[in-house]
Amino acid sequence: xxxxxxxxxxxxxxxxxxxxxxxxxxxxxxxxxxxxxxxxxxxxxxxxxxxxxxxxxxxxxxxxxxxxxxxxxxxxxxxxxxxxxxxxxxxxxxxxxxxxxxxxxxxxxxxx
Length: 112
What we know:
5-stranded antiparallel β-sheet; 1 helix; elongated
């Protein structure tokens, strides 16, 4: 009986982990761009440094820890040039809203 209870718990844990992975935070992304080494994101204190480009030159930034509310940002694609230093594109604006959590349950009690 103890072995059965153990395997039930292990199975439940696996399902919960799989569910959490499937519900991963959204990502800020863009199409691949040749030569881009990093992206500058300004207008929001969530990004404190440049975001390195993916291997294909695309942007992928995890938004898991971002605060609830509306975020107005500007994004520029940049590359590091040996002669000219950092060279960046014009910025493109992007606005999104992370919804707030619902309020806590009220009047919680047992019912007969």
